[in-house]
Amino acid sequence: MEYKLVVVGRGGVGKSCLTIRFVANHFLEEYDPTIEDSYRKRAYIDDESCVLDILDTAGPEEYSAMRDRYMRSGQGFVCVYDITSRSGDGLLRPHPTVKDVDHPAMVVVGNKCDLESQRQVAVAEGAALAQSLGGGCVFLETSAKADMNVQECFFAAVREIRRLTNNNNDDRTNSTKKKKKNMNGGNSQRCYLS
């Protein structure tokens, strides 16, 4: 299986640091603004081999047109904010009109939790934000520098994609069963033509 993940958030929140820590197990010491970088990583998630196709996006507002394209192409979203910056908690998140679903597979990530002494956004605020997005959105705090919950945030995004896909498949199956039941006049007898 291949999963398309998109990492979104304001500039400087640590999107690239998280992605590179996950893909290459390396921490970037210097901030270099990203326009768009793409990575692939093979992983085993819950005993299933899969490939994660990760798009690390631009944070600055001048790239908003590109961001709409990212939203359409992604299956899951890792929405990152910086716990040390109050201005960084306004997330850039997939909007239903862009993604055509009410609740896309999302993980809300409060990054830089190794800088606890500089914290401006409380854990409870991040959890409340995830809850407000609905659909069972997952919340984690991470540190790319200390390698805390980095793998977990990407794996959680894949698990959300799987969960939503399974729910959609169940909904389709139930819908098909209802249609067949209605076609049979509401009873469970089957009629075969020979």
From TrEMBL:
GO cellular component, one term: membrane
Entry keyword Lipid metabolism: no
Protein name (database record): Raslike protein rasG, putative
Source species of the chain: Acanthamoeba castellanii (strain ATCC 30010 / Neff)
Cited Pfam families: Ras
Region annotation (Disordered) ranges: 166-194
Keywords assigned: GTP-binding, Nucleotide-binding
SUPFAM superfamilies with a match to the protein in the record: P-loop containing nucleoside triphosphate hydrolases
Lyase recorded as keyword: no
Gene Ontology biological-process entries: signal transduction
An MF annotation (GO) of this entry: GTPase activity
InterPro entries reported in the protein's UniProt record: P-loop_NTPase, Small_GTP-bd, Small_GTPase, Small_GTPase_Ras-type
